[in-house]
Amino acid sequence: MDWTELVVETTNEAIDAVTNILMENEAGGVQIDDHDLNDVRVITYFPANINVAEKAPELEMQIKGLSQFGIDPGKATVKLSDVNDDSWRDVWKKYYHPVRITRYLTIVPSWEDYQPESDDEKVIRLDPGRAFGTGTHPTTSLALLALEKEIRGNESMIDVGTGSGVLSIAAKYLGAGKIDAYDIDDEAIKATKENVALNPIAKDINIGTNSLLDGISKKVDLIVANILAEIIVPLIPQAKECLNPSGKFITSGIINDKKDLIVNELTDHGFVIDEILNQKDWYSIIAHLPSEGE
Ligand SMILES: C[S@@+](CC[C@H](N)C(=O)[O-])C[C@H]1O[C@@H](n2cnc3c(N)ncnc32)[C@H](O)[C@@H]1O
Predict the structure, then answer these.
(1) Is the pTM of this model over 0.80?
(2) pLDDT of residue 274
(3) What pLDDT is recorded for position 128?
(4) Which of 27, 223, 261, 274 could form a disulfide with 44 if both were Cys (CB 3.0 to 4.6 A apart)?
(5) If DSSP states are collapsed to H, E and C, what string results for the chain?
(6) How do beta strands 77-84 and 39-47 pair?
(7) Which residues hold S-adenosyl-L-methionine (predicted)?
(8) How far is the CA of 57 from the centre of ligand 1 (A)?
């Protein structure tokens, strides 16, 4: 399969905002090549069936428009080139290396050798393929940190928008019980299945195509969703229906100017905010449904 590589030349301060624009335009994951503060390249890949050439001028305009929000986008050029599957993988391998995300969790690309530094370190083997979720994006690492804080052992969990499956697999390493992992995108389902096979501890995760929690009636102890804020809004009332009393709802993927919106939506639906985690321009919110009498 052929791919279109899209490279944005920008600045260090614009990395998160540019990533956000690309994600809103169906990019999967991004790689960052930052030799210099003002000479940064944000790289992503689109499958050949997406007409990126048509999108590119609009993307360039949005990136140039970041200056209106006080963010210097630098050159803000968008360049496209065609790559085949093998060179996609080679480029990807150049940028993606083992990374210790939290105290206990390290993510290691499936093709790299890695020895954990201590017995406590849980090593997640991952080949994200075209799905989002290398673990290195702030939205994923915040969600991983939140899972590490909340999982005590045996919790049932639903992962909404599983991407590469990274959050569900990490949750199994942290001791979670039964997990359902859903995504709307077939590439994500394929990647999650492959990544579960790389991490036998996660073999009982139930993986399925689903939009948000549409049609799901079971109740669980924990729901995690790393999705854009606009998509979290309709998920909130659904999460309320699918959580056990005292159940926890972890949301991530919230860019700074959407944080208040999500906090307000959560509290309007009866959630209590436990903690707000922040990395760069991104937020993750841990909330719970109060039990009777709380
Ligand atoms: C930002 S990625 C997160 C991936 C991974 N969970 C992580 O934390 O790295 C968001 C994922 O949500 C999926 N998604 C977007 N809209 C969705 C929807 N309505 N229902 C289910 N999944 C959705 C996308 O396909 C993508 O895989």
Answers:
(1) no
(2) 98
(3) 66
(4) 27
(5) CEEEEEEEEECHHHHHHHHHHHHHCCCCCEEEEEEECCEEEEEEEEECCCCHHHHHHHHHHHHHHHHHHCCCCCCCEEEEEEEEHHHHHHHHHHHCCCEECCCCEEEEECCCCCCCCCCCCEEEEECCCCCCCCCCCHHHHHHHHHHHHHCCCCCCEEEECCCCCHHHHHHHHHCCCCEEEEECCHHHHHHHHHHHHHCHHHCCCEEEECCCCCCCCCCEEEEEEECCHHHHHHHHHHHHHHEEEEEEEEEEEEEHHHHHHHHHHHHHCCCEEEEEEEECCEEEEEEECCCCCC
(6) unpaired
(7) 140, 161, 183, 226
(8) 25
What the block records as the tokens of 257 is 């100017």
Mean pLDDT of 45-57: 81
* SS3 annotation, 159-223: EECCCCCHHHHHHHHHCCCCEEEEECCHHHHHHHHHHHHHCHHHCCCEEEECCCCCCCCCCEEEE
Q: Do the annotations mark residue 161 as ligand-binding?
A: yes
Top pLDDT among 110 and 157 is at 157
ipTM over 0.85: yes
169 CA → ligand 1 middle, Å: 15
206 known member of a binding site? no
- Where do the domains of the chain lie, and which CATH numbers do they carry? 2-94 (3.30.70.260), 139-288 (3.40.50.150)
* Ligand 1 environment, Cβ below 6 A: 131-133, 139-140, 143, 160-163, 166-167, 182-185, 188, 211-212, 226-227, 231, 253
Ligand 1 pocket, mutate which of 148, 183, 190 (most atoms under 8 A from CB): 183
pLDDT of 131: 62
Whether 129 and 191 have beta carbons less than 8 Å apart is answered as yes
